[in-house]
Amino acid sequence: MNKSILLAISEKGLADRIRNIIESSGYLVHLVEHVSSALTLIQQVTFVMLIVDSHLSGMQDFDFVRRIQKGEQRIPIMVLGYDGSEEAAAALEAGANDYISGQTDERELLARVNNLLLLFSYGTSQRNQVIELGDLVIDPLSRQVTREDIPIDLTQREYDLLLYLSKKVNQVCSREDILNQVWDYDFHTGTNVVDVYILHLREKLDKGRKTKLIRTIRGAGYMLRTQEVT
Predict the structure, then answer these.
(1) DSSP letter string over 44-84?
(2) Computed from CA positions of residues 141, 145, 149, 151, in that sequence, does the dihedral angle turn out positive or negative?
(3) Taking the model in full, what pTM does it have?
(4) Are residues 16 and 120 located together in one domain of the fold?
(5) What is the pLDDT of residues 107-138, one digit of tens each?
(6) Which residue range(s) make up the domain with 199?
(7) First to last CA, the chain
(8) Domain CATH for 136
(9) What confidence tens digit (pLDDT) does each residue in 8-45 have?
């Protein structure tokens, strides 16, 4: 079982104290003192958790946290802070999963680490569960998609779009929401990228089949629908 935790802490006294606490519980700790070192190490090692000092050298307004949360690796992030509720809110809004005082005691720190890992492990198992929607099957682990047991070859973006729609099955998804969640940028009037990719999905999923899964909801957006609405 992987038990590697990355500590990104610039202040040596705090780094040594947190490292000793974490290692005493059996975790393998990697310590860095700057954002650039953390980014490099994350590309080389698979971590189960990232613990970040809110005053980490090279980090501004928790941009490092945002970057990690938007990356391919999904890592639970705990921020060690000093400035109370406003800083805590900023850290959580940036994507941190927990915020705790850098002066907290050993028992609370370890309890929060263990609880966060348990919650994240459960969430990961839920995200990796096979999705079955009628004759459409999506396997998040292998990223394989089949319909009527026939493999469907999708590009990365087509797969991401289908996965998003499948998690909102029988719900209307606006173009704005799709752009924000799948392409990760705000809606701009005039772009037709969503419509183009919906067309691609229809060609691959629905063409030649009696039951059409992808529906256009005029004036609202699109829906992945697996049942007739009466």
Answers:
(1) HS--SEEEEETT-BT-STTHHHHHHHTSSS---EEEEESS-
(2) negative
(3) 0.57
(4) yes
(5) 999 999 988 888 887 555 556 678 888 899 99
(6) 131-224
(7) 50
(8) 1.10.10.10
(9) 999 999 999 999 999 999 999 999 999 999 999 998 99
